[in-house]
Structures are given as structure tokens and as C-alpha cells.
Specification:
The protein has a domain at 44-140: 3-Layer(bab) Sandwich (minor pseudopilin epsh fold), CATH 3.55.40. It is 37% helix and 32% strand. The chain is built from 1 helix and 7 strands. The N and C termini lie far apart (111 Å). The model has no long low-confidence stretch (mean pLDDT 84).
Length: 148
């Protein structure tokens, strides 16, 4: 009886192709998870930045509202402008604008700061992706006599 001993130290072509295929599938899945995580992270950072911008605009508008005699808001062309009369009767205009962001405001009209508080909503959106937007609502208020 003759026994043939085969040398099985190497890999066959089928085993090599199966290994490459399995590693490719695992690599593609890992790459997709990485790409999706990166996109979610960038969108989250963008929203956070837009919220900070909206809060900054509202803080500045509140400060102007509390210290002015007359106050008028206008929103157009991705910017918000406020014209106000200071206590010394000088009229000033301040414009809020950004090259990458679009600002808009609702509930805008001529307001007498001494008589009424104003509900205001500021919407900040990305100029490149208009669906990426944040809206912050606030109350512009002024301390009345007796509130101190």
C-alpha cells in the first residue's frame, strides 16, 4: 500500500479569495460607520454654533431694548437690523449679519420699549443648507418701576 502525503502548508486560491471578500465587507461596514459618525458630528457642531449665534443676537437685542426709548426691528436679505433711539435722543442702527449664516426674525414691528414686552423668535440657518436651521424664542423685556 502506498500512501500519498500531500503538503498542505499553503492556501488555495478559493480560501484566499474568501478571506479577501470577508475582510472587504468588514472594512466597508467600518468605513460607513466612521463616515456616518463624522456627518452627525459635523451637523451637531453646526447646530450648536447656530444656537450660539442666535443667543448672541437675542442678548444684544435685549440689551438694546432695555436701554432705548424707541426700538424698530427689520429682517431682510439674511440679516436683522435694529434702529433705536437712545436715552439722549440719538438714533443708531445696528446690523446683525454673517457670511455663512442667514438670520431672520418674527414678530417685528415698531415697539415702544417702555410700554410693552415683546415675544421674538430668531431663526438662524446655514446659507449652504437652508434645512439646517435653529429657531430660538425669547422675550424682550424691560424692567419696570417697582421691579428693582
Amino acid at each position: 500500500m502506498i500512501f500519498l502525503i500531500r503538503d498542505e502548508r499553503g492556501l488555495t486560491l478559493v480560501e484566499l479569495l474568501a478571506t479577501i471578500t470577508i475582510l472587504s465587507i468588514i472594512g466597508i461596514v467600518i468605513w460607513n460607520v466612521f463616515i456616518q459618525g463624522n456627518k452627525v458630528s459635523q451637523k451637531s457642531m453646526s447646530k450648536n454654533s447656530m444656537e450660539q449665534e442666535a443667543n448672541l443676537v437675542i442678548t444684544n437685542l435685549t440689551s438694546i431694548f432695555q436701554t432705548s426709548k424707541q426700538f424698530q426691528l427689520a429682517s431682510s436679505n439674511c440679516q436683522i437690523s435694529v434702529t433705536f433711539t437712545k436715552q439722549d435722543n440719538t438714533v443708531q442702527t445696528q446690523v446683525f449679519t454673517n457670511a455663512q449664516l442667514c438670520y431672520s426674525a418674527t414678530n417685528i414691528s415698531s415697539i415702544n420699549p417702555g410700554e410693552t414686552d415683546v415675544n421674538l423668535s430668531i431663526t438662524v440657518s446655514d446659507r449652504k443648507d437652508i434645512n439646517n436651521q435653529v429657531t430660538i424664542s425669547s422675550l424682550l423685556y424691560r424692567l419696570k418701576d417697582g421691579d428693582i
